[in-house]
Amino acid sequence: MIPAFGLSYLLAIAMCIHVVRTGRPMYWMFILLAFPGVGSLIYILTSVLPDLMGGPTARRFGRVARQALDPEREYRAAQAAVDDSPTAGARMRMAAAAAALGRFDEAERLYAEAATGIHADDPTLLLGRARALLELNRPAEALALLERLGEQGEAGRTAPAALAMGRAFHALGRTAEADTAYQWAAARLPGLEGLARYAAFLAEVGRRDEAAEALTEIDKRAAKTTSHFRHEARAWRDFAAAALG
Question: Residue 138 sits in which domain range?
């Protein structure tokens, strides 16, 4: 009988063959051979099962698992794309990847570099740069971009744009305008970020009863969240709860 350790290596070798045949990145070979048990399990969850199962849920699960294993994977791929062809689209992709890693200075610079010429008023670039500026505590600059975005009609009047506008108004002390923007965004955004930010705003301006009601609603929604988004839901629930103290 082959011992369990030997079986784990046989499985790892089988997964290495899968890596080669499917053209997956060669770093998987090191992971699989260095950590045959855990490495094989991670590889199966992130690469084999999504292929076998198909469908958006399986693909999303695979992306989440790969991101947890290698959080800079998308950033490296985006950087390679920029190095190969520094187009506005490539810079936009790299900016989004940088922002996801918390590198907001770099993200803001990349969005600014991409937003030139015919792309100067691109809604995605304007919103992305405004969000980066908000994270950098530069709300006045963010607001100027969001106001330009709002001049584009329906393309610039989206729930994500309204949430960013609420954050900018909030940071600048324009409470009434922040309330309107937050409330509009919270009613339309999927997920819990909009409602959580609105609850935090309500708590900060002294409307604690309304903030508590919003937190109760967050708890109801979080309880219905699928396992894939439970961690994110918990993070936004904690964000709102912290504001209430």
Answer: 75-186
Contact 135, 118 (CB under 8 A): no
Question: Measured between alpha carbons, how far apart are the two ends of the chain, in Å?
Answer: 59
SS3 192: coil
My answer on whether 163 and 94 are in the same domain is yes
Predicted TM-score (pTM) of the model is 0.72
- HEC profile of 111-160: HHHHCCHHHCCCHHHHHHHHHHHHHCCCHHHHHHHHHHHHCCHHHHCCHH
Are 72 and 80 in contact by the 8 Å Cβ rule? The answer is no
Judge if 173 and 199 occupy the same domain: no
The answer on 101 and 172 residing in a single domain is: yes
44 assigned to some structural domain: no
Q: Are residues 218 and 179 in the same domain?
A: no
pLDDT of amino acid 2: 43
Contact 198, 163 (CB under 8 A): no
Domain count, the chain: 3
Residues in the chain, overall count: 245
Cβ atoms of 93 and 81 within 8 Å: the answer is yes
Which residue in this structure is represented by tokens 């600014």?
Answer: 112
If residue 17 lies in a helix (H) or strand (E), which one and from where to where? helix 4-22
The tens digit of pLDDT for each residue in 129-138 reads: 999 999 999 9
